[in-house]
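Sample entry (167 residues):
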Amino acid sequence: MFEHPSTTPSNSLGTEASSYSSPSFNEAVNAARFVKVFGIAALSYSIGLLFGKVLGGGIGLGIGLFIMRYDSAKYYRVLGITVMVFAIVGIFFPFLGPAVLSGAILGKGIQVLGVLAKEGRNDEAWMPSRTRALIGTIASGAGLLISLSLMFLFALGTVALLLGWAA
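Predicted structure, serialized as tokens:
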């Protein structure tokens, strides 16, 4: 589940399974692992904020650190730092961190699914990669929907308090 992202897809016997050698396909296969794991993490982060800002902030910092260490590519470092910053800023503006993480993973998942729709259908790594990407994309989409809904309710409640509508 947590294979190094720069390895080529391989089967359980350790022999190379990828008969399709496109660099974009191999990158999509590796990114599908990332999308699945962090799509589920984004959904958990969104749900975690329901239980309090401190718990959600801690989850966000942990996820951000793990993303930073996931790979040496600039995308992962920038995303990890951004998630950590929004986890800290989330003390004042909750639900920004999970929304950013969910949106980023959703975008990456759509990108991976686009590559997999065009390439490598005959490769034995194609189906598991597509399944991983679908799971992560759906989970991150659900996390984004939860985050945006809660952000709307938070803004509505804040406006109601400021205008004196709440008792």
